[in-house]
Amino acid sequence: MTRLFKIGGNVIENEELLDAFCRDFAKLDGPKLIVHGGGVMASKLQEALGQKPLKIEGRRVTDADALKAVVMAYSGWCNKSLVARLQKYGCNAIGLSGCDANVIRASKRPPRLLMDGVTEVDYGYVGDVCKDSVNAPFIKALLDMGLVPVFCAINHDGNAQLLNTNADTIASSVASAIGASLVCCFELDGVLLDRNDPSSVIASINEAAFARMKADGTIADGMIPKIENCLKALREGASGAVIKNAARITDESGTVVEL
Question: Any residues with CB less than 8 A from the CB of 68 and at least 6 apart, and which?
């Protein structure tokens, strides 16, 4: 079974957690790959360059200057430092963006209405991807060679335009395209019943339970898109989905997401 691990910027920025993840990941048997974010570092780089990071409803607005910063952060430092750390532990990783070997194409996101149903926003150079955007045979060929693909969140439109894409969406799309099991990793042990109690991990959650808990506020904020992307991956061909701690990838902990 192929497993796709998605890690976010909070893991990338935490030296101890990242090192533990890479060490444990290298020990896992079978075909595997990684999709990573890096939003924390991208924001820091924007500020160092005199830019003011702007997010609307949790999504980064990516103008021309911001695009240069996120490309430098995601496909530069974040990707290559992660690949180097994996190599340290004997994992033969290869770092990729979507434009490398034309492995993932994206379409530029048109202006969208916000949740208020009235305000329209142009997110700039942001790309949307789906299952059909992914060159699945190429990824499978890399896996068959014993390589471990490590994808950042930068893609292209096929017309020389780089685009910034949400890493969770990339992970969902790639997992669907190759039939992998999606392992969404972050700094907690799973989806919590009580956000103030880190031990209140929900063992499994399905679409109906998610809808109820989202409506009553039990599940909110950044956990919503994580679960939504897991459900989308399952609907479109992923072989499984779990949300768990990046420091516990070798055990059976976490929250299993089901349809």
Answer: none
